[in-house]
Amino acid sequence: SIIPPGTTLLAEVPLLDNNGKFNGQYELRLMVALDVGGAIKGQHFDIYQGIGPDAGHRAGWYNHYGRVWVLKNAPGAGNVFSG
């Protein structure tokens, strides 16, 4: 995992319309890395959308580029990017 659980992040998240299409805008969200999950491959983030069929449907729409900044390293972890 590149981002240890507990790391505080600022994410630039693409905004989607009601049909899951990118509308050309982004919003900034404050997030905390919780886990790495088993389905995540490569350098991707999975954004939690809640529980239930609607949440699963919304989660399936997110396949877009965004940016992420590390604001605070996880407690007890070294620098995420040292170099």
Automatic annotation (TrEMBL):
Superkingdom per UniProt: Bacteria
Source organism phylogeny: Bacteria, Pseudomonadati, Pseudomonadota, Gammaproteobacteria, Moraxellales
Organism of this sequence: Acinetobacter baumannii
Positions of the 3D domain: 1-72
Entry protein name: Murein transglycosylase A
InterPro entries the record matches: 3D_dom (IPR010611), MltA (IPR026044), RlpA-like_sf (IPR036908)
Pfam family, one: 3D
